[in-house]
Amino acid sequence: MTKICIKNHRNLLLSLALPFTLAVASSACVAGEEDLSAKPEPTAEAESAVAHPCGVRNGKLWCTNKYKAPIYWGPEYQSGWRDELWTTYSWFDCYTFSDLHEGGNTTWYHTTGDKHGLEGFTAAVNLSTSSAFDADPGAQGLRECTFP
Questions:
Q1: Model pTM score
Q2: Based on the structure, what is the number of domains in the chain?
C-alpha cells in the first residue's frame, strides 16, 4: 500500500508501507496535508482527454478516440471494415459528411489504422470532438477530404 500525503503544491511527503521495513514512518498525514491514497484513480480516458485536448495542428486534427475505433473503406458503414485504431490519441487529416451515425451527425474523419496500417474513415462518434466542431471542422482549420 502506498500512502501519499501532500504538504503543499511544492513539497510531497511519501510514506510507504512495504513488505520489509526501510525506516519507521508515521502512517498518518500531518495536519494540513491531504491523504490521496484513498481517492480513486482517474480513468485512462479522463487522463487522455485532459492531457490531449482535440485541436487542429499543422493541418491535422489531433484528438482522443475510442480504443479499437473501427476504420471503414469509405465514410459509411456499408463500405466495410478495413482497420481499427488501437491508440487512444490519433491524428485525422481530413473530414467529410456522409452517413448518419450514432453520434447524431454525418461527420466522418480520415486517418490510418493501427492494426494493419490501412487508410480509411471513422465516424465522429469515435472521437472526443464537440458537436460544434463536428458541425464544421473546416472552420477549425481541418481540410475537407477530396475524392477522385
A1: 0.66
A2: 2
